[in-house]
Amino acid sequence: EPEVTQTPSHQVTQMGQEVILRCVPISNHLYFYWYRQILGQKVEFLVSFYNNEISEKSEIFDDQFSVERPDGSNFTLKIRSTKLEDSAMYFCASRWDRTNTGELFFGEGSRLTVL
Amino acid sequence: DAKTTQPPSMDCAEGRAANLPCNHSTISGNEYVYWYRQIHSQGPQYIIHGLKNNETNEMASLIITEDRKSSTLILPHATLRDTAVYYCIVRVGGNAGNMLTFGGGTRLMVKP
Fold first, then answer.
1. CA-CA distance, A87 to B30, in Å (whole number)?
2. What's the pLDDT tens digit per position in B32-42?
3. In this complex, is the C-beta atom of A41 within 8 Å of any C-beta atom belonging to chain B?
């Protein structure tokens, strides 16, 4: 069964460093998302991406964050200068359908630890 | 998107049906009801969704009341592997970027 894959599974970084989290969505999907979950808290929406541009973003997704689909298969989330509060599990998701009623497929997540 | 209310936790005996309720009294006519679950710290997993009619798939059944103000997710024969947090989410369709808003969900504990 096709799946969304994410790398790395766990990354430890120093505060102020740049981090790139990578995702390979399911190949025929059209819509891409990043969510995050701070330990013990709710899953929070960060950004959605469609047709090579951001279609929606939350208040969390400030200027420190950026997304890119550099080569038609990868979908990346970059955090320019990490803060302690960026420590979380980051989930990538994708969806195929144009009706926007279908399900999101989530990856297993990338755990980011900022020291 | 409409807000949902779910009990924070429920227990279910293994092999029994698990019935997870959700209230969404402010749901609009064009909002769908979705159920996802999250096992431990894994990525959320889609279970089922519906608009008005009851739905069934290989994982679960979704019963939506006639006034659409509440719904119930039914896992017909719960197993230990169904222990997870279950999220009921209502969402408008037809918008390219529309995201899911996760609440606290119901933590279902399936016990032997």
1. 36
2. 999 999 998 89
3. no
